[in-house]
Amino acid sequence: MAILGSIIKTAIDLRGALVSEDSPIESQKEVLIHLLEKAKDTAFGKYYGFSKILESEEVQKTFAEKVPYFDYHQMETEWWNKTQEGLEDISWPGKPTYFARSSGTTGKKSKRIPVTDEMVEAIRSAGIKQVGALANFDVPSDFYEKEIMMLGSSTNLEDKDQFLEGEISGISASNIPFWFRGFYKPGEEIALMEDWDEKVETIAKRAREWDIGALSGIPSWMELMLKKVIEYHEVETIHDVWPNLQAYTTGGVAFQPYEKSFNQLLADPIIIIDTYLASEGFMAFQNRPETTSMKLVTDNGIYFEFVPFKPEYINDDGSLSQDAPSLTLAEVELDTDYVLIISTVSGAWRYLIGDTIAFTDIEKAEIKITGRTKFFLNVVGSQLSVNKMEVALREMEEKFDLKIPEFTLAAVKIDGEFYHHWYLGTETTVNNEELADALDEALKDANKNYSVARSKALKGVIVSIVSPNVFHEWNAKNKKKGGQVKMEKVMNEEKFKEFEAFVKEENSLD
């Protein structure tokens, strides 16, 4: 048994036994009070009367009443633009050290989200909590002596307007503690590379130099990297190169769509640990092996609120109606979709991050991500969420023995009638009409509103099959290859026409 690994495992087990956490509900009250106290003298805090809110007997309720919801556009144009100009004490004391670039899922212009030193520390602290949670997973002692492949964007941060700027994965990797750097791969030199293809090619060439025990990164890009390593070394699976690979910490997007194709790259099953790290903060991580749900980080710089995900509360652009009610952690219910709202130590306030979640265990504050507010297709009353789409596609994988890691769709009008046109990314040949019929039936079974729409204004379903690589190249063209990218699952008609033209161009090159 590895001595160092045994020591680390014992320390983690001991920490898990000794550390007792406060109730998530109580922790959230304390976090909100801390945020308000810290920011009460900022321009934002003065404008919305944080000092008065703190005097209230019901701080959470008063906070929700006095401060409106903000999406990125509102927060940026009303407050963060002043921070970008170099002004201090705008929505958080002082000035942030970093801005996280996030291309998001709409538009070509990158978002610039402030990342304060307090947020860097919060992300690091949440990461340590996640490492501590490994005590709950059955990993051998020698696992703690292996290296970790962290695949993210470049750590070569850009010096811009008094701030350092890059994607959140690059910012986080550039702040790795000194004691961890010996375990971290591909190492600082390769991590600095801007060109993703060059980075992956270099990783593939040097792969046998490393004893990788764990992976960390976005599933789509991680899968492409593993395929490149396998191809370069002319082997069957990634375990032929990294025989001690035992765990994968995934994040950025849901892992389930990639599970089937990912597992084909392995010789043996590995532990999959879900995380929820966004440009705005480290929200949640999987805390135990009995579930795929993630535990909200309720005591670490982020205050959460939850808005019931109902069509009447969502504006056409995906923003929230100011009339939408918000709930605290003490008020939520199981298996109900909520729009996630956050207030953070980076000076985001009642901020619409754009994700929808549902609680699977309220006492443990465990959630699953169910979709995006902008990936909600409600043309002609179909009320189709990403969660329902994903469930139906997993059925298609089983029924037709397919792998569908990528998809997008739009409501299109043909001869005056509305159709849902799906593009499915798969390498398997299948009858499109048969697949469309089966998908249509699965959605009817999963969603009452969709079934009603199909009996009225929604004429039918069209399915087009393309290679999953088309989606990767689309992301590379519109955003940044290898970055923190969420593929648009639902497109408007104009963007969908651009995507169709891109597909035709890609197919013509084959």
UniProtKB/TrEMBL annotation:
<dbReference type="InterPro" id="IPR055378">
    <property type="entry name" value="GH3_C"/>
</dbReference>
<dbReference type="InterPro" id="IPR055377">
    <property type="entry name" value="GH3_M"/>
</dbReference>
<feature type="domain" description="GH3 C-terminal">
    <location>
        <begin position="390"/>
        <end position="494"/>
    </location>
</feature>
<dbReference type="Pfam" id="PF23572">
    <property type="entry name" value="GH3_C"/>
</dbReference>
<dbReference type="GO" id="GO:0005737">
    <property type="term" value="C:cytoplasm"/>
</dbReference>
<protein>
    <submittedName>
        <fullName>GH3 auxin-responsive promoter</fullName>
    </submittedName>
</protein>
<dbReference type="Pfam" id="PF03321">
    <property type="entry name" value="GH3"/>
</dbReference>
<dbReference type="Pfam" id="PF23571">
    <property type="entry name" value="GH3_M"/>
</dbReference>
<dbReference type="InterPro" id="IPR004993">
    <property type="entry name" value="GH3"/>
</dbReference>
<feature type="domain" description="GH3 middle">
    <location>
        <begin position="297"/>
        <end position="363"/>
    </location>
</feature>
<dbReference type="GO" id="GO:0016881">
    <property type="term" value="F:acid-amino acid ligase activity"/>
</dbReference>
